[in-house]
């Protein structure tokens, strides 16, 4: 590949294609080489985030954390900082360090952050917190009368299960009455 930005872009696109074909090991090798030999400090943070994501997809959370540590440079865009925090929290969750994971994304107000926070709470089996958090997510929908998206349907399912585990059948009836017509006709 050519040197410079064009070559780096080619390598990243090739790694994306390899990952899409589930050739995660080969994709990670390409990005590791790029981090070691081709990128500057600012680009290294971005490529490090991509590499961490591949490690998470390949069920290697410790490697993801290591990459995020090694490629942590200041001056990143706010979007990249949030992405790196979410990847760190996901890796910590997969290592059963749920309290640390929650601490990492404590101030994350993005939708992806809210969903990740709910996944961490689910792993902790903190049913009251899951119920509160899921209600917040569903209550923040732009149009409360629109059909639920598949992601929102999953949040609703977890909310219903949290109410079931808590024995709150009044809230379960409310969910059925309110959301029954908003759930798409799917499996």
Biggest β-sheet description? none
Question: Helices and strands, in N-to-C order?
Answer: HHHHHHHHHH
Helix proportion of residues, in percent? over 70%
Please tally the helical runs, counting DSSP H or I stretches of 4 or more residues. 10
What does this structure look like?
This protein has 187 residues and is mainly alpha-helical. Helices cover 73% and strands 0% of the residues. The protein is built from ten helices and no strands. The longest helix has 17 residues, at 41-57. The mean pLDDT is 87.
In short:
The chain has 187 residues and is mainly α. It has helices at 5-20, 24-37, 41-57, 61-70, 78-94, 98-104, 111-124, 127-139, 150-166, 169-179.
Topology, element by element:
Elements: H1 5-20, H2 24-37, H3 41-57, H4 61-70, H5 78-94, H6 98-104, H7 111-124, H8 127-139, H9 150-166, H10 169-179
Helix pairs in contact: 1-2, 2-3, 3-4, 3-5, 4-5, 5-6, 5-7, 7-8, 8-9, 9-10
List keywords for this structure.
187 residues, mainly alpha, 10 helices, elongated
